[in-house]
Predict the structure.
Amino acid sequence: MTLVDWLILAAYMGVVLSIGLLAGRGSKSADDLYRGGRRVPAWAIGISVLATSLSGVTFIGGPQQAYLSDLTYLSASIATVIAAVLVSWLFLPKFFAANVSTVYEVIGDRRGVVARRACASMFFLGRLLASGVRVYVAAIAMSMIFFDDLQEWQLVVCTLAFAVAALIYTSWGGIKAVIWTDTLQAIVLVIAVGGSILVLTGQIDMPFSAATDSLGDAGKLKLIDLTPSMTSTFSLWSVLIGWVLFNAASLGTDQDMAQRLFSSRSAGRAAGALIGSQVAAIAVVSLFMTVGLMLFLRDSNSAEGLADGTRRVFLSFILSDLPVGLRGLLIAGLFAAAMSSMDSTMASMSSALVLDLGLGGKTEADSAKVARIGNLVVGVGLSTFAIIFAIVAAGEEEGIIPFALGVMTYAYAGLLAVFVCVLLLDRGSGATIIAALVTGAVTVHLMREFSGTSIGWWMVVAFSASLLVCALQKGKRPIPESQQRGFEVVLAEEIK
């Protein structure tokens, strides 16, 4: 990197921190930090959801997936849009009607505090694993850029850099800081990858028709996988069933995605932001996949041939082929993707820790202080898991995207079953909810280790098993705490 590239990266970081600190003005309570006063524009919420959906996994894994395989990963976007529509129709109106700050509050309102804490705990553990993977992937990229190597201490340094930067503005500005910095990060990311495509266009010396013929002959333009095999990760049936369930869980039961929707003024605006973000994600992911295809074309027609280390192919291009300035912008985009994963995770996990797991303060001032302490605790935990992945998963041979998504199914299968049972079927008790969460995680593990099937089918089987377990009992709706106090007063008067 040249001095100009370093200056661009430093300027970008300065802007991000400034936005985060400005967004925090007037945040005096946990509710301000977690819901932003419900005054954030829907378009900004949508871009923020888009930014978190992308993350460092898409930044590195998108080009890698196209370079290694084909475009079938894009077909999963169909499932994402379908899931966004279902969540907007079935879940969001119930969340807004209950005026919640976390999605698990609704479960608590209907099935009690034990059920609420069980769901929040499953989310907490699942998000530590999933976001740990995301930060680890971004640390790989930044380590290659800054150190040209992947030694453990270098990955640790990069992980801590992400954590400190995200912690500063997230702790101060809360969800508003997350949304507005994510908006900037998404814009930088799109500009940077667009610039990469322009540079690659100049490096590939062939007409467009010849390029598409070459990619078609190599099987790279396959978009829909019609094979009936249950081992294909992005086959059409896996997408339309398994991936719809997976994304419904991601968008509707994961506080990381849902939290920023609660900063909207209404369920309708939140639904528009959610659906719009997933439609836009198709275009953005297409850009990253296009980079992978163009790198494949360039390398397959060069004397050196295709790259051996496919995880590093995009990084090598950034460092060796991009002009000064654009290189710094693209690295800033990668830093943006990493922080977008970490900042929203800190905010959402902190909200679960403080609100759902009962660590909140007694006054507004106390709650804001506890919320910021929660961010710190979560930041440490998230960094720890990312470092563990850096040590344990460095030799993982499967693609980055399947690996990262596979980790997330452990929590999602049970959570989605619980939300469907409680909110839509009015089934499930505290005991069966806990059993369903455990069943989902165990079933996913067994499917992963012994079935030989792909991720989508793990989700189908584990969700179905969890749904059956959760529906075994019909729990009673608990008496709200305020009504309980009133009942106790009446009962005391009658006793007298």
